[in-house]
Design brief:
Layout: H1 4-11, E1 13-14, E2 21-22, E3 27-29, E4 37-41, H2 42-55, E5 72-75, E6 80-83, H3 101-116, H4 119-128, H5 132-141, E7 156-159, E8 166-170, H6 172-180, H7 185-195, E9 201-206, E10 209-213
Antiparallel strand pairs: 1-2, 3-4, 5-6, 7-8, 9-10
InterPro entries: Endonuclease_7 (IPR004211), Endonuclease_7_sf (IPR038563), His-Me_finger_sf (IPR044925)
Protein name: Recombination endonuclease VII
Keywords: Endonuclease, Hydrolase, Nuclease
Length: 225
């Protein structure tokens, strides 16, 4: 039995807007549809898109004044033709964003400011689910200091990597330290035991000669003075 895609490729496809049977090359690709093609032909799709833009009060889509050579791309914001490397990558076709990197970054900052009030608010909301106001309230509950070492004015949100729940506000060193110990109470307990000197250690008693020594049992005679 011939597949749906091969059948459409052989006889063409009817556009429901203009009711014409057209070649598959007259339709954009759409992997989510059974036949792998867009619902409307390219001409009708462009007309519908323009009508939608006018209805929403969006101006006509800008186009480059002259054809763009291969290997280059036109940025609608700065109206410049630049190499493809100057445009951020995207997984969607054609593999590059519509705006060059400076214009893309400018648009991103404007969107964050308009929707979230700034980069920090966006970062806190996106990663931890709290805003600047909640951050300040949590810090005030801690007395304005790091919840671990007491260093003033900590800036880092600490959260449980398994549940995503926020635990407190820490300074850079304490937040990084917990991450290095993988949030493991067992690892931290062993580190405390090590720092208290209750583990066996290798001690140099003569040049090239070492002895395993436990500080709880005293040091070797050569270390007494």
């Amino acid at each position: 039995m011939i597949s749906c895609v091969r059948f459409v490729q052989r006889i063409g496809k009817i556009c429901p807007q203009c009711e014409r049977r057209l070649s598959v090359t007259e339709f954009h690709r759409n992997r989510r549809r059974a036949d792998g093609l867009a619902y409307y032909c390219k001409t009708c799709a462009a007309a519908r898109s323009e009508a939608s833009r006018r209805k929403r009060g969006i101006g006509a889509q800008r186009k480059p004044a002259a054809p763009v050579p291969a290997g280059l791309k036109w940025c609608p914001d700065c109206d410049q033709v630049k190499p493809l490397e100057d445009f951020p990558r995207t997984r969607k076709s054609p593999g590059r964003h519509s705006y060059c990197k400076p214009c893309h970054n400018s648009r991103t900052r404007e969107t964050k400011q308009r929707l979230h009030g700034g980069d920090r608010e966006y970062h806190l909301r996106r990663r931890y689910g709290i805003g600047e106001q909640e951050f300040r309230e949590l810090l005030a509950e801690q007395g304005g200091v790091c919840a671990v070492c007491g260093h003033p004015d900590p800036e880092h949100v600490d959260h449980d990597h398994r549940t995503g729940w926020v635990r407190g506000i820490l300074c850079f060193n304490c937040n990084g330290g917990l991450g290095q110990f993988r949030d493991s109470p067992a690892r931290l307990a062993r580190a405390i035991t090590y720092l208290r000197g209750t583990t066996w250690q290798r001690v140099l008693i003569h040049p090239g000669v070492f002895q395993m020594c436990s500080p709880t049992r005293g040091r070797p005679p050569s270390q007494r003075s």
